[in-house]
């Protein structure tokens, strides 16, 4: 912040009778109404442009955000690899249907896929007739998916599996609901499966159940091998495999970028388990999958490097690939041996950006994407700055030099914090992570006020209020984070991008609390942190207006000028966070904008608050704490707006355009 602003804060303190807000326990709301004022100049020049990618998403494979989440694959452990490469192995969560007198199930290494050799063997001992008749419904195996599959009436699902048997096979493939009711079924009969054979079918559901399972059964005596069993709804986003409701909730944020695939997931606890892009491309059946040893679950890697790039493209977000540079949480590759890792990274960039005739670009084209992906950012590692091999022994520089040598335009992100000290190595951006309590987060609005204006810009790729006071994602957390983001916006000359973390959580695997978006097999809701981010989406590519705030320190504010690309309408947006228990009358004074040029019918006041600062959303009350938009009928360049205790508000003054107004402009413009 400019020194002028700091002086005003001091002035405000000396002029006002101030209760000690910051000592008040959260949630205490007092009757006193205080006053504050905010002045800004709408015609300020030169214009201060906020990055087009200022606010975006950090996607990490944590809490089943991908496997069992955004990736719509319904089958968990589809290749039977989760139990490890040695057989016999555990097939969890697959479950056997039938007792030992009727079926014996085991694993062996007979798969036709070289990188994932484990296959399932079912030795069916019972038969349609004779002494050992199979129980009604047959015997076999079922997969419950990730805490139940969401099967919906009228929807279609593509089921694919590989089968082999020396006898003719007769099998039923069905979705079964939680009350054992059949929701969809199809039978196959094949007497020519001596070699592995791919079976593909589309099942249409005639019933709904959010806790279903996929079942493969037979009543015929035979020995059947199964492998790579997949079930995907046909209605994924663009047919690209993303669960539509989870895609939509991300797209609604209009993210400027998406960082992937982590986080610590990039590093791995051990190198052998780290995300290796090359193992995640190509035919899904041939991907080995990995044990996500940081967050402790298996992933089949259906959501691989290609799919992440596709996701970014579908979201209209800039992909930010975080690459493992030979450093895991517990191990480091010797820098003298790092060159193969460097080459592997260059190959990955060529896979994304090379034309379809290049070696790696052709692998991408073969997956159906002829045009290059718009990869412009590569982050070298995650939270690795203080690992010995990163800076001191030079692994970072090997990556930096090699990438810049081939792709000079790619922006490289270092893990080392340049906000306080000058870096000892080149970088285009530096990664900055903050997890702290609500008060600290709110006061960190000033964190970048004194950062160097000359060095690389900040990528605040992970921020979150954590700890008991944040609950499972409450209003308090969202307000503190909103205050922090307002500070980032005010410092957008040195902060280029920011994203909260973690993004997603499957309620059935809440390993990190709190998260921005909560889901189960069939439902999803945003926490207040998610909704708070909606009020920032207009900032991407907007113009920052300097503003001077005179107020208690529990208030923070920023102002932008922005144009809605869809409607072509322009607005002045003032955002204010009240992180205290007092109501405030905020006097707003805007220079350089006269009343005649304000379209009051299109101006709005958006409020994010609740009766209790600890309030959260839930599946039953998904919008208990969500922005409420009201018309601002008396919009003018000088007005007083009431700021409720513990609230985040956005005042949007629509500017009259010079063109003839269309009738629609009399309606309230909903910018959410
Ligand atoms: C507003 O900004 C413009 C352009 O920078 C400047 O000419 C004008 O004097 C400013 N108005 C006030 C009241 O500061
Ligand atoms: C999400 O992951 C973190 C880290 O493993 C874990 O502590 C948290 O319990 C998970 N959340 C859920 C809902 O599983
Ligand atoms: C605009 O309207 C407000 C409120 O009606 C008034 O206080 C202010 O003086 C007006 N501004 C101008 C430039 O007329
Ligand atoms: C807005 O203007 C109307 C009519 O001019 C007036 O009745 C109303 O009290 C005003 N509201 C506020 C919040 O000033």
TrEMBL record:
GO MF term set: alpha-L-arabinofuranosidase activity
Compartment(s) where it occurs, according to its Swiss-Prot or TrEMBL record: Secreted, Extracellular space, Extracellular matrix
Gene3D superfamilies: Galactose-binding domain-like, Glycosidases, Golgi alpha-mannosidase II
UniProt keyword terms in alphabetical order: Extracellular matrix, Glycoprotein, Glycosidase, Hydrolase, Membrane, Secreted, Signal, Transmembrane, Transmembrane helix
Membrane spanning stretches: 5-23
Domain Alpha-L-arabinofuranosidase C-terminal: 461-647
InterPro entries: Alpha-L-AF_C, ASD1_cat, Galactose-bd-like_sf, GH, Glyco_hydro_b, Glycosyl_Hydrolase_51
EC number: 3.2.1.55
Top-level EC class: hydrolase
Catalytic activity reported: Hydrolysis of terminal non-reducing alpha-L-arabinofuranoside residues in alpha-L-arabinosides
Domain of life where this protein originates: Eukaryota
Family membership noted in the UniProt record: Belongs to the glycosyl hydrolase 51 family.
Protein name per the record: non-reducing end alpha-L-arabinofuranosidase
Organism the protein comes from: Salvia divinorum
This protein's encoding gene: ASD1
